[in-house]
Structures are given as structure tokens and as C-alpha cells.
């Protein structure tokens, strides 16, 4: 099981939101590079970075910080937020990002997703951020009527290397993730899945591992920053 601690970037700081609401932003570290170093020092090998400023603007805004983290630490970093064109993909691959996360651009233009998966084989991850199984886009501000199962059925053979499924209503609440729907999606489609949104304790992590579903990894944010899960324990998994 791969553990992905999360760093959300806003105004060059490490923050967390609750249910994706930007009005709920809370700063946890003024220095995101130092935060990445803390994860690295505790034995974690993966990192999930979201450029929240980029998600709102529709273009990468914190590339300098992301590059610093990738260059300084031996972490396999996946990056999302504001990646709406091939130029952004090239920039991130050029600085050493392990996976490029496409969300809004992929949902709005599945041709772009298909071409990206073809040109950057094994490098494209797909972010599916949902409320009641309906996909949201543009930094979770815009809600669509697109059913997540219908959308995945359409793009399942494009070559997506990983799906990141986030239940927005669970995100930042630290009361447990949406096990049921994540497992159902993972069982339905032959694509590696990351479970995200609401991980609250080490017991949640152990449950995912024990259930032995087709889950490749777990993204953990607020539970780490609120000390509900000890980094030293995660580093041993």
C-alpha cells in the first residue's frame, strides 16, 4: 500500500480546506518545502501535491515550490491543480514529477485526456472529485451532472495510469472516507485507484489494507496535520 501525504498549496503556503471550500482555508505550514522534508524524514516515499491557486486560475501558479520539493527529496511526487494543457504537463515532467494529475481538463475534454495518456504513457493520473457520485470541476467550484461511473466507462481504455477518487463531502472532515463507492469503482474498472477524502485514523488506513480491494494507495491530509495519525506510524507501512 502506497501512502501519499498531501500538500495543498495556496499563496505559497501549505494549507488544508474543508469540503473543498476556499473560505475554510487553514494554514498548517508557512514553508511547504519544509513540510515535504518532514514527510521524507519520517520514511514516506510518495507525495501528493495540489496547486490550489492553479486550480482556481486554470494554470500552474506554484511551480517553483513544486520544483524545489521534487529536486530536494527522493519522493515520488504526483501533482495536480491547474493542469489544463500539454505545456503544463511538459513542465512538470521536465522537473521530475512522477505523475501528472488531470481533472477539469480531462472532464471537459476527453480527447485531451486520451492524447495525454498516449503521449505521456504511464504518467497521467485522473482526478475524479465527486459529490453524490456526480463529478465536480474547476477547483470543486462547478458541479456537473456527469455520473462518475458513466464517465469512467467512457475513458477506461484511454491508458490512465491511476485514478484518484475523492468524495468532496468527506474531504477535510476526518470522519472516514467513502469506502463503499471507492471499492465499487475499483472493482468495476481495471485501473489502479487511490482513495482520498476523509481518512481520519490509522484504523482507516489499516481497513483499506485489510479489505484488500484494488486500491493502490491512500492520500492523507488533515489527519496528519491535526495529529490524528502519527507520521512515524505511516512511515512503517
Q: Give me the CATH fold name.
A: TIM Barrel
**Structural class, please?**
alpha/beta
Radius of gyration in whole Å, from Cα?
Answer: 16 Å
Q: What integer is the average pLDDT?
A: 94
Written account of the structure:
- The chain has a single domain (2-234), classed as TIM Barrel (Alpha-Beta Barrel), CATH 3.20.20.70.
- It is 36% helix and 31% strand.
- The longest helix has 10 residues, at 32-41.
- Helix 1 packs parallel to helix 3 (63-72).
- The chain has 237 residues and is α/β, with parallel strands linked by helices.
- It has eleven helices and twelve strands.
- The protein is globular.
- The termini are close together.
What does the secondary structure layout of this molecule look like, with pairings?
Elements: E1 2-10, E2 13-18, E3 21-29, H1 32-41, E4 46-51, H2 52-57, H3 63-72, E5 76-80, H4 86-94, E6 99-102, H5 104-108, H6 110-119, E7 124-131, E8 134-137, E9 142-147, H7 148-155, E10 162-167, H8 179-188, E11 193-196, H9 202-211, E12 215-220, H10 222-225, H11 231-234
Parallel strand pairs: 1-4, 1-12, 4-5, 5-6, 6-7, 7-10, 10-11, 11-12
Antiparallel strand pairs: 1-2, 2-3, 7-8, 8-9
Amino acid at each position: 500500500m502506497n501512502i501519499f501525504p498531501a500538500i495543498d498549496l495556496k499563496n505559497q503556503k501549505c494549507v488544508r480546506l474543508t469540503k473543498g471550500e476556499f473560505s475554510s482555508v487553514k494554514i498548517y505550514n508557512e514553508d511547504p518545502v519544509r513540510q515535504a522534508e518532514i514527510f521524507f524524514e519520517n520514511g514516506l516515499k510518495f507525495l501528493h501535491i495540489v496547486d490550489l491557486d492553479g486550480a482556481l486560475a486554470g494554470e500552474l501558479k506554484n511551480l517553483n515550490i513544486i520544483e524545489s520539493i521534487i529536486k530536494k527529496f527522493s519522493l515520488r511526487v504526483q501533482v495536480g491543480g491547474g493542469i489544463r494543457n500539454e505545456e503544463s504537463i511538459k513542465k512538470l515532467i521536465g522537473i521530475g514529477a512522477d505523475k501528472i494529475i488531470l481533472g477539469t481538463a480531462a472532464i471537459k475534454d476527453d480527447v485531451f485526456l486520451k492524447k495525454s495518456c498516449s503521449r505521456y504513457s504511464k504518467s497521467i493520473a485522473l482526478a475524479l472529485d465527486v459529490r453524490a457520485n456526480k463529478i465536480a470541476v474547476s477547483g470543486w467550484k462547478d458541479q456537473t451532472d456527469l455520473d462518475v461511473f458513466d464517465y469512467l466507462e467512457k475513458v477506461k481504455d484511454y491508458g490512465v495510469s491511476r485514478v484518484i477518487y475523492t468524495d468532496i463531502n468527506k474531504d477535510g472532515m476526518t470522519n472516514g472516507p467513502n469506502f463503499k463507492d471507492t471499492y465499487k469503482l475499483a472493482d468495476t474498472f481495471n485501473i489502479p485507484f487511490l482513495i482520498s477524502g476523509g481518512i481520519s485514523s490509522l484504523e482507516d488506513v489499516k481497513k483499506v489494507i485489510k479489505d484488500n480491494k484494488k486500491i493502490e494507495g491512500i492520500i492523507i491530509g488533515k489527519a496528519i496535520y491535526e495529529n490524528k495519525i502519527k507520521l512515524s506510524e505511516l512511515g512503517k507501512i
